[in-house]
Specification:
- Residues 5-23 have low confidence and may be disordered.
- The protein has a two-stranded antiparallel sheet with strand order 1-2. Strands 3-4 form a two-stranded antiparallel sheet.
- It is 37% helix and 17% strand.
- β1 and β2 form a beta hairpin.
- The protein has helices at residues 2-8, 63-67, 69-91, 102-117, 148-152, 156-159; strands at residues 25-36, 39-50, 123-124, 145-146.
C-alpha cells in the first residue's frame, strides 16, 4: 500500500527523488582513460563516498539509507504544499475549506513533519560503529545508524570517533 502511495506521488524510482539537500561526499581515487592529443593516459578520478551529518564516512552497507533521505524530505515538502494550499484557500474565502480549522491542521502537519524529520538517518551509530553483526546495539537496534535525537544524546567521548 505504501509503495502505491509513493508511486502516486511520483516517487517510484531513484531518479524521481528530489535533490533538495546536497549530499556530503569525500573522494577516493579510481582511474579512467583520457586522450590528450595522440596519447592516451590513465587519470585518477574521485569515487564519491557518502558522509553522515557529522562528517563520518557511511559504510557501504548503509549508503542506500542515507541516499534515500530525500524521500522523507519530499514527503515533508508535500505536507508543506498541502498546508499552503489550504491556507491560501481559506484566505481566498473558498467555501470548500470552510470547515478546516487552520490552527489544528498546522499543528497536526507540524507533528507529522517532526516524525519524518526525526526518522531521517542522521549519523553512523557511534556505539557499535555500524557493525553489521551487532544486532544487540541498544542505540541503533542493530541497524547501524541513528536519528538526530539519538545522536544528540550520545556521550561526547563517543562522538569524537
Amino acid at each position: 500500500m505504501i509503495q502505491s502511495e509513493l508511486k502516486s506521488y511520483g516517487m517510484n524510482s531513484s531518479e524521481d527523488r528530489p535533490d533538495s539537500k546536497p549530499e556530503k561526499r569525500v573522494s577516493r581515487a579510481d582511474t579512467r582513460k583520457v586522450k590528450r592529443g595522440e596519447s592516451e593516459y590513465e587519470m585518477k578520478v574521485p569515487e564519491k563516498k557518502i558522509l553522515d551529518s557529522k562528517g563520518q564516512q557511511v559504510p557501504e552497507h548503509l549508503v542506500k539509507y542515507f541516499e534515500r533521505a530525500n524521500e522523507y524530505r519530499q514527503m515533508i515538502k508535500q505536507l508543506n504544499d498541502m498546508l499552503k494550499t489550504v491556507r491560501e484557500g481559506k484566505e481566498a474565502g473558498d467555501l470548500f475549506y470552510r470547515y478546516i480549522k487552520i490552527e489544528n491542521l498546522t499543528a497536526e502537519i507540524g507533528n507529522v513533519k517532526r516524525i519524518f524529520r526525526f526518522a531521517l538517518p542522521y549519523a553512523v551509530c557511534r556505539y557499535c560503529g555500524a557493525d553489521e553483526n551487532n544486532a544487540e546495539c541498544r542505540a541503533c537496534d542493530g541497524c547501524g545508524f541513528v536519528n538526530e535525537l539519538t545522536y544528540i544524546s550520545t556521550p561526547a567521548e563517543l562522538k569524537g570517533k
